[in-house]
């Protein structure tokens, strides 16, 4: 067989080529894959699909800033003059390999039972009655990758059932968290931008639901500046301690996006509608003292003594009767839960549309091309 260099795929003789029916079946099968095959494979699938249905790449190359469409165009163009039939066959072969490997039993434990997260970007420890979930990507200011969202969900599910009395979210290094990792938007699935927005919205909804439903006292130890979703979900925590170096920034309009984490509901409730609007519409950054004055932060500590003071206090709180704390949290939060779930669903669905907008794509392209920073 001939080799298509960019993709490492084979071109077979005409007698072995897959039928249109095989191809249609393979297209349906892709949607049923149990495991995400990764971006490289998804790009291959995209390129082969285009080649099989439309022939060699025949559209103008997208501009430099249109990074998503340019990556797709490059993959399609790399197939050169490969015939439609050969592309169809390669597509069918690739899907059949993917289906076979996704059928084989996974060696991993189910997410809820997993002791440690999938990547080093999250560290979960339990000590002195406190489960600590630490964002651990200091070189990237603890920006949240897709894997980290999944790992945090798993960590919260495990913490809700473990022996600890209190659960803490904090960060490593000088930042608490710089929000969503903007490169998440460059990992385009085979279904394109629409599919990316759909699955990101589903993940966002699951992620925020875990905070809404978390049954034990949940404390944020904000060790430095906080951006985006790491700020908005603070309204779902029971207590927020911050160093005086922390700041709180929700630059959604700058990013062509809209609020999440139930902040469209919790922020106006916590700080009043006009202060909330200044943050959520105009991206006003609050200092730790300002956030405390508005009720978003419980208490601010001098940076030099922050860790010592906060952990001493949390250790003392963790000795309180755990069932009493759970029940008190239930009474405080339960009547709001239904509302919060509805708000989360609505915010996620609005964002699904926003993520497909030019305003959002241009803002992300600007950040990635190092033209814009907050
Ligand atoms: C699926 C659920 C989706 C939920 C959606 C949530 C929405 C949000 O969270 S919106 C908020 C998104 N966050 C941002 O827009 C922040 C972008 N980052 C910045 O503006 C700056 O990096 C900073 C102000 C946070 C820090 O600036 P500083 O000069 O101190 O440090 P840098 O040199 O810029 O950063 C170091 C390193 O980290 C990378 N990085 C930082 N934040 C992010 C991020 N959010 N996404 C991707 N990468 C990030 C930065 O690019 C640097 O990387 P290099 O060293 O490789 O250049």
TrEMBL record:
Annotated ranges, domain ACB: 19-104
Main location: other
Source organism superkingdom: Eukaryota
Location of the region described as Disordered in the Swiss-Prot/TrEMBL record: 99-123
Compartments where found: Peroxisome
Biased composition (Low complexity): 99-110
One Pfam match: ECH_1
Record keywords: Isomerase, Peroxisome
Listed SUPFAM superfamilies: Acyl-CoA binding protein (SSF47027), ClpP/crotonase (SSF52096)
Sections of the chain in a coiled coil: none
Gene Ontology molecular function: any one: fatty-acyl-CoA binding
PANTHER family linked to this entry: ENOYL-COA DELTA ISOMERASE 2, PTHR43684
UniProt-recorded name of the protein: Enoyl-CoA delta isomerase 2
Lineage: Eukaryota, Metazoa, Chordata, Craniata, Vertebrata
Gene that produces this protein: ECI2
């Amino acid at each position: 067989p001939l080799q298509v260099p960019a993709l490492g795929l084979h071109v077979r003789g005409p007698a072995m080529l897959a039928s249109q029916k095989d191809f249609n079946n393979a297209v349906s099968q892709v949607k049923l894959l149990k495991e995400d095959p990764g971006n490289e494979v998804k790009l291959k699938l995209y390129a082969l699909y285009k080649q099989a249905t439309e022939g060699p790449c025949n559209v103008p190359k997208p501009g430099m800033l249109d990074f998503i469409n340019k990556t797709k165009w490059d993959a399609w163009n790399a197939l050169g003059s490969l015939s439609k039939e050969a592309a169809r066959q390669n597509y069918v072969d690739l899907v059949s390999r993917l289906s076979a490997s996704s059928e084989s039993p996974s060696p991993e434990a189910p997410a809820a039972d997993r002791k440690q997260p999938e990547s080093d970007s999250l560290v979960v420890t339990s000590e002195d009655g406190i489960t600590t979930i630490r964002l651990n990507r200091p070189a990237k200011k603890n920006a949240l990758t897709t894997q980290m969202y999944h790992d945090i969900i798993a960590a919260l599910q495990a913490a809700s059932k473990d022996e600890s009395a209190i659960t803490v979210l904090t960060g490593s290094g000088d930042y608490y968290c710089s929000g969503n990792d903007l490169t998440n938007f460059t990992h385009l699935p085979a279904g394109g931008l629409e599919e990316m927005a759909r699955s990101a919205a589903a993940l966002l909804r699951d992620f925020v639901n875990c905070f809404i439903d978390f049954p034990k006292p949940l404390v944020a130890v904000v060790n430095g500046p906080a951006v985006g979703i790491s700020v908005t979900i603070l309204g779902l925590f029971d207590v927020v301690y911050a160093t005086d170096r922390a700041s709180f920034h929700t630059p959604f309009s700058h990013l062509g996006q809209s609020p999440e984490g139930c902040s469209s509901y919790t922020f106006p409730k916590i700080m009043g509608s006009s202060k909330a609007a200044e943050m959520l519409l105009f991206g006003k950054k609050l200092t730790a003292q300002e956030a405390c004055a508005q009720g978003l932060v419980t208490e601010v500590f001098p940076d030099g003594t922050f860790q010592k003071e906060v952990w001493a206090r949390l250790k003392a709180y963790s000795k309180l009767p755990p069932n009493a704390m759970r029940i008190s949290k239930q009474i405080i939060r339960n009547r709001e839960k239904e509302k919060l779930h509805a708000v989360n669903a609505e915010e996620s669905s609005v964002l699904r549309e926003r993520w497909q907008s030019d305003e959002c794509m241009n803002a992300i392209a600007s950040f990635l091309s190092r033209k814009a920073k907050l």
